[in-house]
């Protein structure tokens, strides 16, 4: 893989292209609240943090879709299912789901993180291997200080590598 360097010759680090202004949620936020954040901010995932900024989970739009899916049906059957059941039953079903705390559907174990001093190649390898959309960037005490997404990486590659060729 081609190494990514700054013009100064230094290796590019996560801190060079991560997003520092983190959009995050608390564990007690509801699925409904998180969906609203996703729509408003046009994002597909967020870290879940304690009040002190410590990372305790990650949730994506895919996690929410899986939570909305009836257990005994495929996702493409869901809309047919919701159309034919009684409106009252449907509303109760949706209300129960969307008012759950987000932490109940989030990934809370084995969360892959990177640090601000990790090299760009590390991020590319992780994103490619695990098919993640975004990674939390944490400091030495597991506090979220940023995020890095596939889009951030692609933009950075395009700006620093492709345009300089």
SSE blueprint:
Elements: H1 31-41, E1 45-49, E2 55-60, H2 61-68, H3 75-84, H4 87-98, H5 120-130, E3 134-138, E4 144-149, H6 150-162
Antiparallel strand pairs: 1-2, 3-4
Task: Summarize the structure in words.
With 165 residues, the chain is α+β, with helices and mostly antiparallel strands. It has a single domain (14-162), classed as CBS-domain, CATH 3.10.580. The chain has helices spanning 31-41, 61-68, 75-84, 87-98, 120-130, 150-162; strands spanning 45-49, 55-60, 134-138, 144-149. The radius of gyration is 19 Å and the shape is elongated. The protein starts with 30 loop residues before the first helix and ends with a helix.
> What's the CATH C level?
Alpha Beta
Q: SS-based structural class? A: alpha+beta
The overall average pLDDT, rounded, is 84
> pLDDT below 50 for ≥5 consecutive residues: which ranges?
none
What CATH architecture do you see?
Roll
Largest sheet: 2 strands, antiparallel
Record field, number of beta strands:
4
Q: What integer value in Å does the Rg equal?
A: 19 Å
The secondary-structure element order is: HEEHHHHEEH
Sheet with most strands: strand arrangement: 1-2
What is the terminal separation in angstroms?
Answer: 16 Å
Structurally, the number of domains stands at 1
CATH superfamily: CBS-domain
Shape: elongated
Number of helices: 6
Helix content: 25-40%
Residues in β-strands, percent: 5-15%
CATH topology: CBS-domain
């Amino acid at each position: 893989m081609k190494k990514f360097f700054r013009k100064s010759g230094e290796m590019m680090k996560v801190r060079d292209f991560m997003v520092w202004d983190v959009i995050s949620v608390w564990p007690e936020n509801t699925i409904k609240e998180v969906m609203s954040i996703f729509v408003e901010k046009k994002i597909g995932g967020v870290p879940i943090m304690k009040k002190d900024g410590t990372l305790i989970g990650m949730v994506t739009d895919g996690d929410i879709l899986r939570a909305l899916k009836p257990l005994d049906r495929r996702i493409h059957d869901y809309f047919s299912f919701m159309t034919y059941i009684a409106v009252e039953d449907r509303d109760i079903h949706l209300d129960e789901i969307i008012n759950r705390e987000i932490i109940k559907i989030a990934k809370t174990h084995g969360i892959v993180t990177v640090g601000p001093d990790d090299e760009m190649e590390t991020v590319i390898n992780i994103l490619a291997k695990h098919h993640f959309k975004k990674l939390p960037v944490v400091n030495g005490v597991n506090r979220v200080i940023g995020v890095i997404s596939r889009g951030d990486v692609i933009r950075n590659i395009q700006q620093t590598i492709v345009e300089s060729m």
